[in-house]
TrEMBL record:
GO terms for molecular function: lyase activity; metal ion binding. InterPro entries: RraA/RraA-like, RraA/RraA-like_sf. The gene is proA_2. CDD domains: RraA_family (cd16841). Keywords: Lyase, Magnesium, Metal-binding. It comes from Blautia glucerasea. It is an enzyme of class 4 (lyase). Substrate binds at residues 87-90, 110. Its EC number is 4.1.1.3. Its cofactor is Mg(2+). Mg(2+) binds at residue 111. This is 4-hydroxy-4-methyl-2-oxoglutarate aldolase.
């Protein structure tokens, strides 16, 4: 199993939260102002990067024709103003007919009632009834931006839950980062154990980390 698949497998099996992933990334990685359409979903997977620009979703329709299955589709918008990049029809095509894990966009969506009714795993920046135009843009998309953002996002890992979206950059998809995730998960277990069963204050747990000086406790944790 390649390291990308190992990390995704660990994230999904353990439902590692965006909070924990952001901590493992040094409190970075969040996709700002993007929140779930429907609560309770958890998705993690390899990103397929798609772009929309000039208030047009023509490029989106064009690009999603040939997507591989089982990815998280990230639609990034450029110059789309406050228009919805797409709605229920395209979401159904991506999620059902292309079997994608989730949809993320830094833009807005429309057809909110339909998206909520279907309870689809979608994360976006909000809703509006006013959509992008389905016309071919007058200009070619900036090749420099296209190259930079493709290299940055396509093949990275997205983690999505009720708190939002965190992206694990490709340069962080390593065995070392997987070890950080193990450590964060263990730390969370210890913190809640010290709170629930030892009745320590959060100051003693989080700031002073008094549990590290409890040799018997820490040795028992290692045995476990």
């Amino acid at each position: 199993m390649e390291i990308t698949e190992k990390i995704i497998d660990y994230l999904v099996r353990n439902r590692v939260s965006t909070t924990e992933v952001a901590d493992a990334l040094g409190k970075t990685g969040v996709l700002n102002d993007v929140m779930p359409v429907n609560r309770g979903h958890y998705e993690a997977g390899k990103i397929k990067w798609i772009y929309a620009y000039e208030e047009s979703n023509w490029p989106v329709h064009e690009q999603i024709q040939t997507m591989e299955e089982d990815c998280v589709v990230f639609v990034e918008t450029f110059g789309c103003q406050d228009r919805a990049v797409f709605g229920e029809l395209v979401s159904k095509y991506i999620l059902l007919y292309h079997q994608s894990r989730a949809i993320i966009t830094d833009g807005k969506m429309r057809d909110a009632a339909g998206l909520i009714k279907e309870n689809w795993p979608i994360w976006c920046s909000g809703f509006t009834p006013v959509g992008c135009f389905n016309r071919e843009p007058e200009n070619e998309f900036d090749e420099k931006i296209k190259k930079e953002h493709f290299e940055k996002y396509d093949g990275a890992i997205a983690v999505c839950d009720d708190c939002g979206v965190v992206i694990i950059p490709k340069e962080q998809i390593t065995e070392e980062f997987l070890e950080k995730l193990y450590h964060i998960e263990d730390q969370e277990d210890i913190w809640f154990d010290r709170l629930d069963h030892y009745k320590e204050s959060t100051f003693d747990i989080v700031c002073k980390k008094k549990y590290l000086n409890d040799e018997i406790y820490m040795s028992r944790r290692k045995l476990d």
